[in-house]
Amino acid sequence: MDIETRGIVIIGGGPAGLAAAISAKESGAEDVLLIERDRILGGILNQCIHDGFGLHTFGSSLSGPEYAQRFIDRFLELGIDVMEEAIVLSLDKDRILSVSSRKGYQVIHADAVILAMGCRERTRGAISIPGTRPSGIYTAGAAQNLINLENIMVGKKVCILGSGDIGLIMARRMTLEGAHVEAVFELLPYSSGLPRNIQQCLNDYKIPLFLSTTVTNIHGKDRLEGISVAQVGQDRIPIPETERYVACDTLLLSVGLIPENDLSRETGVEMDNTTSGAVVDDSFMTNIPGIFACGNVLHVHDLVDWVSLEATQAGTFAASYVSARERKRTSASIPVIAGEGIRYTLPQKISGERDFTLSMRAISPWRDRFIVLEGNGTKEIKRKKMMRLHPAEMIRIDIKAKEISSFSTLEVRVE
Ligand SMILES: Cc1cc2nc3c(=O)[nH]c(=O)nc-3n(C[C@H](O)[C@H](O)[C@H](O)COP(=O)(O)OP(=O)(O)OC[C@H]3O[C@@H](n4cnc5c(N)ncnc54)[C@H](O)[C@@H]3O)c2cc1C
């Protein structure tokens, strides 16, 4: 079979893939190809018809499709090559991709690859809720897709498990579509959604949120008839005497997103067990030279604005990698350690040669704390006062190369 040679190939045409493609092209890469398995570009944003997107990037509150369209317009203006309804089936460490599309099966060798495949939702199977298997149980994203894109209403009396942003948005959406949302249940002692979504999606509609509570059983034969819920202890194990029955015909699960990294794993990309995404350096390059990652496939973002910002940088770095100057560059090696109170950092490794933004998440909600950055385990480099820390909100700190160039390790922690 013939192998086609291409410059930069981007896998996934959501906001990450679009921003990476645009910046790669604008940074001088001549040959950029974006491959998207769906029939249209825009990724998950196409089904997110509520507003609130783009406050940082454009200073206005756009719907998901409006936000995506701004990038699609620029993408088309630049004449970037795209294959839609085409799925990347495999990728190897020499950056050889196999692609299935309307044209048939193709093999492509890319000078650089940008992974931008987004994430998928955890399902009932992933959290092992016992009980019968009636209809009426959906992931929140699947319900969002059916309602917003297919015009199919999924139920009338609804319970939601999980108070992440997608669950909160769907509580409001179901209410606006005429359903009655009985309650949102959350396993953790705090919501994992943004505070503005708690206010706008639950409080404004008087939808109750029960914290430290989970679904313990599913009832119903053909269609869901009700669920059992119970409070959980600090160990997150249900307390039997608190179990109660809630009648409902629909249960939406919003219990986490999993970066879609099957391709990355097969390729031998080093993975971070905490983010479930690739380990990258401050140029968004993985351990495999010429393979970059950005967007939700790298780590799950709270705001799409950060996805676009990171992907723009990944596209620029991929463009400089394919220029002859950087072809032999390997991944950077100075480790960034997630210390006390920090769940993960991104990047996980840095070169010490360039300015970068350190993204991280706190492990629990706190008020009046400091984020402390330390070099070689002894020297304090930065201390930033945080009025509020919350696992749902990404912390981003800009770091200059000159601040860190003399260190062989960096550690960040909450104090
Ligand atoms: C159900 C759901 C609802 C969400 N709702 C909100 C919200 O309301 N507000 C908010 O700020 N954020 C929301 N998000 C987060 C949102 O996904 C991200 O902010 C953003 O869309 C991530 O961009 P991305 O490009 O990384 O991923 P995506 O938007 O998921 O795009 C990834 C693209 O890659 C394509 N792809 C994957 N694998 C392949 C392959 N092998 N070959 C070819 N193409 C492939 C997919 O088809 C998809 O188009 C939601 C996420 C989900 C999953």
Shape: globular
What profile does the largest beta sheet have?
7 strands, mixed
Which second-level CATH architecture of the largest domain applies? 3-Layer(bba) Sandwich
> How many discrete structural domains?
3
CATH class of the largest domain: Alpha Beta
Beta-strand content bin: 25-35%
Number of strands: 27
Outline the low-pLDDT stretches: none
As a whole number of angstroms, the C-alpha radius of gyration is 22 Å
**Global structural class:** alpha/beta
Count of discrete alpha- or pi-helical segments spanning 4 or more residues: 9
Which cofactors or ions or other ligands sit in this model? flavin-adenine dinucleotide
- Name of the CATH superfamily of the largest domain: FAD/NAD(P)-binding domain
User: In the CATH scheme, what's the topology name of the largest domain?
Assistant: FAD/NAD(P)-binding domain
Tell me roughly what share of residues is in helical segments. 10-25%
Separation of the first and last Cα atoms: 58 Å
Question: Average pLDDT value?
Answer: 94
Characterization of this structure:
It is a single chain. This protein has helices at 15-26, 64-77, 124-127, 140-150, 165-176, 195-202, 262-267, 304-322, 401-404, and strands at residues 3-11, 32-35, 81-83, 87-91, 96-101, 104-115, 119-121, 137-139, 157-161, 180-185, 209-210, 213-219, 226-231, 244-247, 250-253, 257-259, 271-272, 277-278, 291-293, 334-338, 342-346, 349-350, 356-362, 366-375, 379-389, 395-399, 410-414. The protein has nine helices and 27 strands. A hairpin with a 3-residue loop joins strand 24 (366-375) and strand 25. Helix 1 runs parallel beside helix 2, helix 1 runs parallel beside helix 8 (304-322) and helix 4 crosses helix 5. The N and C termini lie far apart (58 Å). The mean pLDDT is 94. It has three domains: 1-122 and 256-331, FAD/NAD(P)-binding domain (3-Layer(bba) Sandwich), CATH 3.50.50.60; 132-254, FAD/NAD(P)-binding domain; 332-415, Sandwich (Immunoglobulin-like). With 415 residues, the protein is α/β, with parallel strands linked by helices. The relative contact order is 0.14. The strands form seven sheets. Strands 1, 2, 3, 4, 5, 6 and 19 form a seven-stranded mixed β-sheet that branches. Strands 8-15-9-10-11 form a five-stranded parallel β-sheet. It has a five-stranded mixed β-sheet with strand order 22-20-27-24-25, with no helix packed on it. The structure holds flavin-adenine dinucleotide (FAD).
